[in-house]
Write a structure and sequence with these properties.
This protein has 683 residues and is an alpha/beta fold. It has 28 helices and 12 strands. A 7-stranded antiparallel beta sheet has the order 9-8-7-6-12-11-10. A 5-stranded parallel beta sheet has the order 1-2-3-4-5, with no helix packed on it.
Length: 683
């Protein structure tokens, strides 16, 4: 028993040193941590066995872990000093081994060995710190070899050749035989040209040569493919090595080890098919680490490979945080209860994983895994339906913008171009509008001017008893308006009108009406985008032209508008509460269909109940209030001013007291455009 625990302790300390030594290596660290966890598992099982067998007689436990308490102190020191990576820091073997160690320590304290235990722990921690600070012998030998080679003037190629010879000497006879066989499967000159490529485009020139040599020199094609994955070639989406035997990592590091490391940063490979490829346990452990960082891989197949249960558990833990992986197949590899539990946790934490190829013999775990796979597939189906709905909405919006003549509004920095002739026409029209408005103002002043003499009846009594107004009085009545006219330059049209005050006073309403109609006609000649180019030459005139107008101008006509909007459903639904509908605002009615293609023809707008429409609001029957949402800048609402829609206002009068809510998200028009068009129906 003592010999067994001593072997376990030696392995624990050795693997703990490797974990500390390879903490910066992506290739060696995963395998070192897995070996360390395996030794922790052996130590945990041994301590639990000792506690169980000696529950009545503690003598055997005292003989093994008592005395100077050095054995249990060594276990405690390793557990406290070794720090694992994020992938394995939460492994349950660390927790269970720590609990078993604490149980042994409590038993020893009860036996009166607490002081010896504390002293032994302090000594072991100091010894572990000294070992950690020492330099690895292998690295020291390499450094000495390089110094000697530089002193003798040897080239780097000679140094590499010496290192290759040392590697070959460390290989087993079986590995040497495999290395000799592999040397015939590739061309050194071709491999050098492949490794010299630094961009994916450079590898395209070697594609024909690599594929041509696949039958005779399989190594050339494999190294070329792995280097494409290493350079993150955007054209490499499916990586397929199925049924192609790869050499072991210690024989050829340019294939399986390089591929496992490359998958950590690759962003284009979606299918990695490695079934029956002689993938070894060490490379699989590196692949488990890469899965945690990869965000593009969707399908992983590692069937029929030499993978141990501990490594397969690490792969399962890696898939639990990889949200892109959808299918994992690892049949004919390894199994066990811990591996099955790891896959069940991966399915629960990763809802995108919908297919799992792994043999489960336990009935309970089989049922749990099947239920979780059903949930994940149902969630994936809902995501596909939602994506399809969004795609259809986008296509319908673009189709409406292209075919119905209602394009998306231009961006703020994209102003339409106008010719110089058009700009000149806009300026002249604006000037005419200003002249007409000035005439209207003067007419109003003249209408108010005759009322001034009536405010002083004493002046009329001095002129005589007659009630008729003399021409001199009429001229005097006009004179007070002259200072107001002198403030602004009168146009020629205004001067001609002032020459005939008698005619103006007799017909005070005709000219303003004609002026208002002229103003309306001038407004229709230009648009807001045309006036933008005249803003720099006539400051302030555009705002007057686009303003509310004078009091005598006619109201603006109702606007017509078309486009898609989200309409809130009247009642709560299970899946959604907003419907994507196509709306048409035509002659005071807001009508909506499910899609724009559902409108039979434009003639249906004149019908009382247009064919195929889902609903309508008739603003000619009931006046409405258009209200913006204060919290959401894209939402507005429409409600009846009277609190209830009148008969004939809605298609479905059961919604007579309803407030309609709309969302302009993804609409071709802004919320302000929709609200302005709807408010034009209330004039």
């Amino acid at each position: 028993m003592e010999k067994k625990i001593d072997e376990i302790l030696c392995k624990m300390e050795t693997t703990a040193g490797k974990v500390d030594l390879y903490k910066t290596s992506k290739v060696k660290l995963p395998m070192a941590e897995l070996d360390y966890l395996k030794n922790l598992e052996d130590a945990r099982d041994f301590m639990n066995m000792m506690v169980t067998k000696t529950s009545e007689n503690r003598q055997q436990l005292a003989d093994i872990f008592g005395g100077d308490c050095s054995r249990i102190a060594r276990i405690r020191t390793v557990l406290d000093e070794v720090v694992l990576s994020d992938m394995n820091c939460n492994d349950q073997r660390v927790r269970t081994c720590t609990e078993a160690c604490e149980t042994i320590e409590k038993v020893l304290e009860d036996m009166g060995l607490g002081w010896c235990l504390k002293k032994a722990q302090d000594e072991q921690k100091a010894s572990f710190t000294r070992r950690r600070s020492s330099i690895d012998r292998e690295d020291l030998q390499k450094a000495v070899l390089q110094i000697e080679a530089q002193a003798t003037g040897a080239t780097e190629a000679e140094v590499e050749a010496v290192q290759v010879v040392e590697v070959e000497e460390r290989l087993s006879p079986k590995a040497k035989k495999a290395a000799d066989a592999w040397a015939e499967c590739y061309d050194e000159d071709f491999v050098k040209r492949v490794l010299a490529c630094q961009q994916p485009g450079e590898l395209q020139a070697l594609e024909s040569e690599a594929k041509a040599s696949k039958a005779t020199k399989l190594g050339n094609w494999m190294i070329w493919m792995v280097h494409r994955a290493h350079l993150d070639d955007p054209t490499l989406v499916k990586f397929d090595f199925t049924n192609l035997k790869m050499p072991e990592g210690n024989v050829e590091p340019l294939i399986s080890p390089k591929l496992a490391v490359a998958m950590e940063s690759n962003t284009h490979i979606e299918h990695l098919l490695m079934g029956c490829t002689n993938l070894q346990d060490q490379e699989a452990a590196i692949l488990a680490v890469s899965l945690r960082s990869n965000r593009s891989l969707k399908v992983l197949n590692i069937d029929t490979n030499v993978i141990q249960p501990l490594t397969l558990e690490s792969i399962a833990n890696g898939t639990s945080v990889n949200e892109a992986l959808q299918e994992l197949r690892c049949n004919n590899t390894a199994n066990g209860r811990l591996v099955t539990e790891a896959f069940l946790r991966a399915l629960k934490s990763n809802p995108s994983l919908c297919k799992l190829g792994y043999p489960v013999t336990d009935a309970y775990f089989r049922g749990e895994i099947d239920k979780q796979l059903t949930r994940n597939n149902d969630a994936a189906r809902k995501r596909r339906l939602e994506e399809k709905r969004r795609k259809e909405a986008g296509e319908a919006e673009s189709e409406a913008a292209e075919t119905k003549g209602y394009p998306h509004p231009p961006k703020a920095d994209q102003q339409p171009e106008r010719s110089p002739e058009r700009i000149k026409e806009v300026k002249e029209t604006v000037k005419e509008v200003l002249e007409v408005k000035e005439v209207i103002t003067k007419k109003q002043e003249l209408e108010e001017a005759p009322q001034l003499p009536e405010a002083e009846p004493a002046m009329l009594s001095e002129a005589g008893p007659t009630t008729e107004t003399s021409p001199e009085l009429k001229e005097a009545a006009v004179e007070p308006a002259e200072p107001c006219q002198a403030e602004a330059e009168p146009s020629p049209v205004a001067e001609d009108e002032l020459k005939e005050p008698q005619a103006m006073t007799e017909e005070p309403c005709d000219e303003p009406e004609r002026a208002g109609s002229s103003l309306k006609e001038a407004r229709s000649k230009v648009s807001a985008s045309d006036c933008e180019h005249a803003r720099t030459d006539i400051p302030g005139t555009i705002e007057a032209f686009l303003g509310e107008g004078s009091k005598t101008s006619a109201p603006l006509p109702m606007r017509n508008l078309r486009g898609y909007l989200y309409k809130k459903s009247p009642g709560a639904r299970l899946l959604k509460s907003w419907d994507w509908r196509y709306f048409v605002l035509h002659e005071g009615r807001l009508i909506w269909w499910r899609r724009d293609r559902d409108i039979p023809a434009d003639e249906v707008f004149s019908h009382a109940d247009p064919e195929g429409c889902k609903g309508f609001i008739n603003f000619k029957v009931s006046r409405a209030r258009i209200m913006p949402d204060e919290q959401n800048p894209l939402v507005f609402a429409i409600e009846s001013v009277d609190g209830k829609w009148q008969e004939g206002s809605l298609k479905d009068m059961s919604d007579a007291q309803r407030t309609f809510e709309f969302d302009c998200t993804k609409s071709a028009h802004t919320r302000e455009e929709w609200m302005d068009a709807l408010r034009s129906t209330q004039q």
